Amino acid sequence: MLQNLDPRLILASASDVRRTLLANAGLNFRAEAAAIDEAEIKRAARAGGGTAEQTATTLAGLKAQRVALRSPDAVVIGADQILECDGEWFDKPTDREAARRQLLALRGRAHVLATAVVCQRGEHLLWHHIARPRLTMRAFLDGFLDDYLAAEGDRVLTSVGAYRLEGLGIQLFERIEGEHTAILGLPLLPLLGFLRQHGVVR
């Protein structure tokens, strides 16, 4: 057996991608979304001079804490990701027009995905990690962007960058630096390393 079933493992996320990453790694876990006001937390962080990395870690920690209080015997994984480009933060676009504006703003430029993961058990913070993959978009033509948005449809609304690297979004880029799973929203290699040290996986 690759995983010890005690302690239980909970993913504090509603993200299909994060669930898939953990499941594909062979982990036995339960997914449980944690309701927090992400927009308000980000606003407060920016007003207080917080960095994207600090804010992503705060959000991941709050998600883990919320679920850990309900299941104090489990190891709870919280994760969050903020896209930063030249000091500007980007959220998931609200509609396709917002996705178009976002991709035009990122076109031909490099951006960083501040990707945080936190593990909590009861009231105790066990571990946290921040990854900073760097992605450079190519200077694609407007016609390509129109075709891309038409092909992807509402799928562009599911990520902070309005792209899915596991799909057509890979065609937007000329350079990608960093762990693939961190780009998708969960730095899996360092997380598995922690879980191994903590006796959750072998």
Largest sheet: 8 strands, mixed
Q: Helices and strands, in N-to-C order?
A: EHEHHEEHEEEHEHH
Rough outline: globular
CATH architecture: Alpha-Beta Complex
Summarize model confidence as the mean pLDDT: 94
What does the oligomeric state look like here? single chain
Radius of gyration: 17 Å
- Kindly identify the CATH topology: Maf protein
Low-confidence stretches: none
- According to DSSP, the number of beta strands is 8
Strand share of the residues?
A: 15-25%
Helicity range:
25-40%
Count of helical stretches = 7
What gap, in angstroms, lies between the N and C termini? 8 Å
* Structural class by SSE content: alpha+beta
* Broad CATH class: Alpha Beta
Domains counted in the coordinates: how many? Answer: 1
Task: Please provide a written account of the structure.
This protein is of the alpha+beta class and 202 residues long. The protein has a single domain (9-197), classed as Maf protein. Helix content is 37%, strand content 24%. Strands 1, 2, 3, 4, 5, 6, 7 and 8 form an eight-stranded mixed β-sheet that branches. The mean pLDDT is 94.
Keywords:
single chain; 202 residues; alpha+beta; Maf protein; 8-stranded mixed β-sheet; 7 helices; 8 strands; 37% helix
